[in-house]
């Protein structure tokens, strides 16, 4: 009886310590082939490696405002002054400890409720910046740094998987990427464990909104400049806007790192120069 109680307590404690995918997150979505724990370890290593290069001093994080001591009157006792100094010293010490542990707090895996689907929450303001740095470097070097990670996509927003919330969250991204400068576009839609979200309706509404924002925006399913990523997992929708989606092998980092020959070598050299106007003529392999 006692052993069963201990097991139940341990189970509930583990449940409480888990984080779950929710609206309002930013982060990274990746897929794998069953080795989820190994995939998470690889993702932590990969993200921390490139975050250390891009943000060596942690300048991307919104640090808490410094605590300034209030002005004291001449009647304050020495004891109160000592307490104030001790408090300031403690705050400074906590800040130093926080900065030392910064790289461990940048990323946190959360439960998605779907097998082979990993979401890593971040406090970085622009996960797309870090993802782009990783993808471009892998395209240039062809160095295989992961074994279990398949796709790696930045996620700029998460919301509930219903049409009004999706459109509200997507409109902010559309204003940023499609309002001022016209572009060709495509909507990449995937859903898992969800029967209520209509693929055709969501794609149509997003495409109509993009054209409404700027009449020169044009749909292009073969070689779009920008792709709107819509990944629905159960009741949560993940949204992002990425460029060079087909050039970068649908952000499948295993495919990116494969040795290429013939026409693909030309494509790889163009990717190395980070050009966005390279035509994609070859049929892409599916990554799921």
From TrEMBL:
<dbReference type="Pfam" id="PF02926">
    <property type="entry name" value="THUMP"/>
</dbReference>
<protein>
    <submittedName>
        <fullName>THUMP domain-containing protein 1</fullName>
    </submittedName>
</protein>
<comment type="similarity">
    <text>Belongs to the THUMPD1 family.</text>
</comment>
<dbReference type="GO" id="GO:0006400">
    <property type="term" value="P:tRNA modification"/>
</dbReference>
<dbReference type="InterPro" id="IPR040183">
    <property type="entry name" value="THUMPD1-like"/>
</dbReference>
<dbReference type="GO" id="GO:0003723">
    <property type="term" value="F:RNA binding"/>
</dbReference>
<dbReference type="InterPro" id="IPR004114">
    <property type="entry name" value="THUMP_dom"/>
</dbReference>
